[in-house]
Each structure stands twice: as structure tokens, then as C-alpha cells.
Amino acid sequence: xxxxxxxxxxxxxxxxxxxxxxxxxxxxxxxxxxxxxxxxxxxxxxxxxxxxxxxxxxxxxxxxxxxxxxxxxxxxxxxxxxxxxxxxxxxxxxxxxxxxxxxxxxxxxxxxxxxxxxxxxxxxxxxxxxxxxxxxxxxxxxxxxxxxxxxxxxxxxxxxxxxxxxxxxxxxxxxxxxxxxxxxxxxxxxxxxxxxxxxxxxxxxxxxxxxxxxxxxxxxxxxxxxxxxxxxxxxxxxxxxxxxxxxxxxxxxxxxxxxxxxxxxxxxxxxxxxxxxxxxxxxxxxxxxxxxxxxxxxxxxxxxxxxxxxxxxxxxxxxxxxxxxxxxxxxxxxxxxxxxxxxxxxxxxxxxxxxxxxxxxxxxxx
Length: 366
What we know:
alpha/beta, 7-stranded mixed beta sheet, 4-stranded antiparallel beta sheet, 12 helices, 36% helix
């Protein structure tokens, strides 16, 4: 990979040569950039997507990069890695790109599955990717959440044994929307990583004021952080994610990719680069999400549907006392929701869309 990149640099086949322009300007307000669905009548509240993105800046960058799609632009990927590293005050060697954080989670699962053992994870959390670990030979040990739907860090720490190859923490947690305090999580990591690898999924951390744990990886080889451009930046369909870890750990994980850092397209990388510069879009997305989330929780509780306080762009709630068929109500009103995550208490989750979408969601339940 490095030889290829050096060759491309020597032959001047890079960003400038391909005509990819710098992205200096900021986008218009988010309310003017709502993503147009192919089916405009369908309200998508299923997959925690950002209903306001990509930003205009990102869309322009991706559009401008299409003509470069006939080239393997390693220099563009180098630039993206560099900007991500700069954002987290790290070096390029601390970053590994993936096609969304899903690829990162799968690759880390394979990395931790080289020998038989177990994987410790919360119950309930984002666990679709764990099939990779189980197929590779790890036994999944699920630790129940606390009564207020938070990670039971003490119980998870106690569950670690000599066979534990990995602990997974989704923070904030999907689907519950709860968050570990920074102090408690750091204390957990300091102890857990003495014995095993810890993977922290920060997909939704950008919706909070809590800092990333990226500053810990330079000194801790057993900590791996997964991040994504899918949520706050509105690039779910573009598939751009990355891992943050100690340089030696990144090198080892990267060896499991077919071609290290090469699974992100020129178009997607261009959108991600532009998104990193679009502070206005991010700020407005956070504000709009908070407004619609507050409204949704208030209205659900007015309908006697108790909710868990959310730090994300989705809400977790109990349907135990809801008299109607919740999923039938969604279906009749052309709303795409999720499922029951916990039979006891009939807990479900809904993505926070635009205020208009959440108005329609509440009306559908009334």
C-alpha cells in the first residue's frame, strides 16, 4: 500500500491532478438541506439516520469528485486519515479507515478471535456484528443492563476471565440511548485493558458533550475506538468509518483488511473530508435533534409511554401500557420503525427525524 501511494505521489496522481477542489465554504442552514427520499411518503425512523444530511458542503464535494472515480486515489485517503488524526490530536498511524464502522467492528472481531475464548457484551446493545466473532469461535457472554438501562460496568469487569478476548461498550448505547460517565468509563478501561481488549463504539458520541476516549490510545494498546461518519454527518449510505488505536494495534488490525484503508471510495472520502470542515452543519444538526427529541419524549410520556433519557438521535421507550398495536399504527401511517428489543417491558426504539416527522409519528399513536 505504501509503495503504491509513494508511486502515485511521484507521478502527481493525487487530489490536485484529479481536479478535486478544496472545500472552503460552509453549507446553508440544515433546515434547507433535508435529504429527499425516493419514497417521499415513507417516514424512515428505523436506522438512526440523520434526516438533515449530507450537508450541502459534503454533497458538493461528492458531486465534484465523481470524475475522479476512475482512479485509485490513495492520496485522498491519506488526506482523510490525516484530517481525522488531526481532529483527535493523534498521528496517521493511529487511524484505520473502513466502509462504515460496521467494517471496523467486524475486523476488530476477527482480530480478537484469533484464539478461542469469549466476548463480553451488554444485553441489550448493538450486537448485529457479533455474529462475526461467534462464527470465528468466540462465545458471547451478555451482561444485563442496570434497571435504568445503562451498562453495568462493574458486572462486566467481574465477568472478565482468562478466556476473554474482547469487551464491547457502545457509548452512548444503542438502542437505549444511555451513556456511561466519562470517569466511570475511563476507570473501567484502565482495569479491563490490563486483561483484555476493549472496543468502545462512539457512533453517537457527537450528539453529546462528552469527549472521545481517543487521547487514551497512545499509551494503551488494548483500547480500540470505533467511529463513523454515518450519524452526525449524515453519510450513512456513503459508508465511511474508522478505528482509533495504538499504532501497533492499528497495524495488526489493518493486516486483516484485504487492502489496508482501501475500502472507502473517492466519492465517499470526498464527502467525509468536506464534512469535517462543516462545523455549522454539525452544530445545527445537534440543535434540531435536541428540539425534536425533547418534543418526542414529552409527547410519548403524555401518551403514558415511559421513555429512557436519551443522549442520542433516538429514543427507547416501553409499550407495556400502550393499548393499541404500536407496529400496526406505524404501518397504517407509512412509518418505518424497528422492533421489540426486550419482551419484558415491551421496549422499542424510534429514530428522531425532523420535527414534522415526529409530529406525524405522535399523531399516528394517538
